[in-house]
Amino acid sequence: MPAGFALLDALSATDLDRVIEMGWEDRTPFEAIEAQFGLAEKDVIVLMRRELKGSSFRMWRARVSGRATKHRARRPSGMSGFKSDQQRSITHNKISKR
């Protein structure tokens, strides 16, 4: 069993929720999840399969399969960060109003 699978069982509930959230985010690459939690793409897939309902997992897999934004090497050259340009800025722990 690869080392990443052992990490799945060692994740706290908070970390587990964050990995799932990062997996769902279109602009967060698998490399960012690996850097933060030590889970490779295949480990994230196993985690998502284990934690999501079957239909949710199939929908997620269809969305991320081949998606360029989920892999740094395949991203367009202008895309450098994890934050979307559309995301509102957060100041002093309050979401800014329009």
Keywords:
51% helix, mainly alpha, 98 residues, single chain, globular
Question: What would your notes on this structure say?
Answer:
The protein has helices spanning 3-10, 13-24, 30-37, 41-51, 54-64, and strands at residues 90-91, 94-95. It is mainly α and 98 residues long. It has one domain (3-73). A two-stranded antiparallel sheet has the order 1-2. The longest helix has 12 residues, at 13-24. The chain is globular, with a radius of gyration of 15 Å.
What's the arrangement of secondary structure elements?
Blueprint: H1 3-10, H2 13-24, H3 30-37, H4 41-51, H5 54-64, E1 90-91, E2 94-95
Antiparallel strand pairs: 1-2
Could you tell me the strand content as a percent range? under 5%
Low-confidence stretches: 90-98
Strand count, sense and barrel status of the largest sheet are:
2 strands, antiparallel
Summing up helix and strand content along with how strands pair, one would put the structural category as: mainly alpha
